[in-house]
């Protein structure tokens, strides 16, 4: 019985060999550098590995140390949670609000406005470095200069190394960067909403723009909301890598540590590869579950 | 453009103010880049620092090419590297991804669903997870200090497969079938029929993929690249941007300006196509 199933499967596959041939270039690369890499990360997470020697199996040792014995990881968790729950949804809501507000106003300035709002995200995570100039620690930094001129500050503050301010600054910069792919998809999605739905809504008793938003606009935009969510969540997690650029590495007293930078620390600096891989595996599972949760939640929009 | 219904003036005003304030916040650093890159050296020593430039000059850009070097590698080299990586990366990406998207969209074969869902899964986690394993793989392959470390992540960019497959699905099967009846091979169908039809989609992909290849710093496998001479622009910028010596500020800003202007120009050129891509049925599941 299974013999015929297998041979008919094989037969089907040979019949579609052209399909497989076309899939091959991409998928070969994908399998090596994504699928296999993830499996490798998981496998290595159970080992002690410092590149110079062969990996040695340590069972759950890395995970035990990670969750029970690593104080810096706890800081990283806290910060990453902070970013994901604040800048993630905030960036998402901001992207949507700006897209929706722009849609409300004059269409003529819309493409210029789109460019202005998208430019930071577009220029990539590098031009964000200009914030270093703004928050620069000497008296030529813009913020220092303005505050000193206004008499609020007497001496220049080293913002980016200061535990009290660095997280707030990081959040602000991440928000600056957050009008990205999801922003564009919301702008586009808003264009697809049928005008007649709005008119029908007005007749049916919708009294202001906020009701219109909740009852008509959002449900129609559900696919865009779902897509935007995936993009924004991934960005919120990944962008925690920014902190090393702005705040230096490691940050003062690890105040700016995130899961990603913790991974980088152990992997690239200390060469605790096995340990780094357990962090990576954890992050992988965390992100995928989080994304799935959000998708499930979004299915209920507008109801 | 029909007038919107049920809109109060107060609401409109509040929205305009909010957008205005936010717009300033978004644009401020970019304005700073532009004006700093045009400032002659003496204007940097003014206290308090002035935002706009009084006597603009192009000398910072000139300095960028002639004197700015990091470990004796000139700016032009970084620029060249960035261009190579982006051209080959994005070009390679679009070719390879469209070849893969077509069977997923229009053929029926065993494993189709699984193959697509693992790519969707790849959209859900950050690339930093696989950085180190990928470095190990690359070093086993002996490819660590080559352009491949930069180009491969660009090619594997999963959003591309997702986007193109969604769009190819909306191409009417009748067009494809009539081409096949006339003897067209599958590659012909792909390049001559499908791709022209979904032009907004791959133009959008071009923008996104280019943006990634041009500006990515931390997510590729390039973390362990040792040869400074193949590194692209983002690495240079990361190294010089922390430099607080006032004499460097003009050049840092000029370098940032170069980084910034290229994707912005591509966006301006493709903007209408990008918006159209995202608004058509491609994103609906």
Strand neighbour order, sheet with most strands of chain B: 1-2
The helix content of chain A is over 70%
Helical content band of chain B: 55-70%
Characterize the largest beta sheet of chain A: strand count, sense, and whether it forms a barrel. Answer: 2 strands, antiparallel
End-to-end separation of chain B = 29 Å
Shape of chain A: flat
Gross morphology of chain B is globular
The Rg value of chain A, from CA coordinates, equals 24 Å
Strand order of the main beta sheet of chain A, please?
Answer: 1-2
Alpha plus pi helix count of chain A: 15
Structural class of chain A: mainly alpha
| Number of contiguous helices of chain B | 12
Q: How does this structure look, described?
A:
The complex is a heterodimer of chains A (about 300) and B (about 280). Chain A has about 300 residues and is mainly alpha-helical. Chain A has helices at about 1-15, 15-45, 60-70, 70-105, 110-120, 130-135, 140-150, 165-175, 180-190, 195-205, 210-220, 220-240, 245, 260-270, 275-300; strands at about 45-50, 55. In chain A, strands 1-2 form a two-stranded antiparallel ribbon. Chain A starts with a helix and ends in a 5-residue tail after the last helix. Chain B has about 280 residues and is mainly α. Chain B is about 70% helix and about 0% strand. Chain B is globular. At the A-B interface, helix 1, helix 2, helix 4, helix 5 and helix 6 of A face helix 1, helix 3, helix 4, helix 5 and helix 6 of B.
Helices, strands, pairings?
The complex is a heterodimer of chains A (303) and B (285).
Chain A: H1 2-15, H2 17-44, E1 47-48, E2 56-57, H3 61-69, H4 71-104, H5 110-122, H6 130-134, H7 142-149, H8 163-177, H9 181-192, H10 195-203, H11 209-220, H12 222-238, H13 243-247, H14 259-269, H15 273-298
Antiparallel strand pairs in A: 1-2
Helix pairs in contact in A: 2-15, 4-5, 4-8, 4-9, 4-12, 4-14, 9-12, 12-15, 14-15
Chain B: H1 9-38, H2 59-66, E1 69-70, E2 73-74, H3 75-106, H4 112-122, H5 128-141, H6 148-156, H7 158-168, H8 173-181, H9 186-197, H10 199-215, H11 233-241, H12 249-279
């Amino acid at each position: 019985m299974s013999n015929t199933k297998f041979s008919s499967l094989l037969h089907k596959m040979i019949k579609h060999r052209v399909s497989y041939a076309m899939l091959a270039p991409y998928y070969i690369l994908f399998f090596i550098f994504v699928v296999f890499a993830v499996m490798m990360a998981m496998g290595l997470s159970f080992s002690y590995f410092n590149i110079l020697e062969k990996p040695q199996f340590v069972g759950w040792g890395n995970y035990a140390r990670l969750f029970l014995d690593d104080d810096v990881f706890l800081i990283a968790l806290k910060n990453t949670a902070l970013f994901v729950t604040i800048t993630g949804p905030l960036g998402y809501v901001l992207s949507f609000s700006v897209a929706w507000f722009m849609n409300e106003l004059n269409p003529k300035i819309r493409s210029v406005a789109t460019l202005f709002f998208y430019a930071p995200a577009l220029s990539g995570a590098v031009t964000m470095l200009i914030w270093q100039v703004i928050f620069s620690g000497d008296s030529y930094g813009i913020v220092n200069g303005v505050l000193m001129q206004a008499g609020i500050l007497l001496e220049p503050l080293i913002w980016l190394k200061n535990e009290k301010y660095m997280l707030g600054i990081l959040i602000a910069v991440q928000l600056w960067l957050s009008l990205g792919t999801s922003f564009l998809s919301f702008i586009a999605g808003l264009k697809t909403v049928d005008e007649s739905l709005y008119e029908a809504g007005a007749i049916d008793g919708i009294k202001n723009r906020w009701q219109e938003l909740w009852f008509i606009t959002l449900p129609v935009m559900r696919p865009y909301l779902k897509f935007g969510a995936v993009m924004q969540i991934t960005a919120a997690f990944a962008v925690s890598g920014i902190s090393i650029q702005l705040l230096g590495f490691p940050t003062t007293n690890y105040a700016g540590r995130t899961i990603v930078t913790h991974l980088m620390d152990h992997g690239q600096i200390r060469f605790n590869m096995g340990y780094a891989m357990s962090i990576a595996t954890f992050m992988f599972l965390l992100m995928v579950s989080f994304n799935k949760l959000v998708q499930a939640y979004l299915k209920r929009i507008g109801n | 453009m029909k007038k919107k219904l049920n809109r109060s003036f107060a609401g409109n005003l509040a929205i305009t103010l909010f957008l205005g304030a936010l717009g300033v916040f978004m644009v401020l650093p970019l304005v700073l880049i532009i004006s700093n890159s045009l400032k002659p050296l003496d204007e940097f020593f003014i206290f308090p620092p002035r935002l706009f430039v009084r006597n603009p000059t192009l000398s910072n850009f000139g300095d960028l090419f002639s004197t700015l070097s990091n470990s004796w590698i000139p700016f032009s080299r970084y620029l060249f590297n960035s261009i190579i990586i982006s051209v080959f990366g994005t070009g390679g990406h679009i070719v390879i991804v469209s070849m893969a998207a077509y069977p997923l969209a229009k053929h029926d074969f065993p494993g189709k669903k699984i193959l697509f869902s693992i790519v969707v899964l790849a959209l859900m986690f950050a690339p930093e997870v696989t950085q180190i394993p990928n470095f190990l793989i690359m070093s086993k392959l002996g490819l660590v200090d080559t352009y491949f470390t930069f180009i491969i992540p660009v090619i594997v960019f999963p959003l591309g497969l997702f986007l193109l497959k969604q769009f190819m699905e909306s191409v009417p099967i009748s067009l494809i079938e009539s081409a096949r009846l006339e003897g067209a091979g599958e590659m012909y169908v792909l390049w001559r029929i499908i791709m022209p039809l979904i032009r907004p989609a791959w133009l959008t992909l071009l923008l996104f993929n280019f943006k990634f290849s041009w500006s990515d710093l931390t997510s590729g496998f390039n973390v362990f690249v040792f040869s400074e001479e193949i590194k692209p622009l983002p690495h240079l910028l990361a190294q010089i941007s922390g430099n607080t010596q006032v004499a460097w500020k003009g050049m840092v800003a000029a370098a940032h300006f170069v980084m910034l202007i290229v994707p912005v120009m591509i966006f301006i050129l493709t903007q209408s196509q990008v918006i159209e891509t995202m608004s058509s049925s491609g994103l609906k599941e």
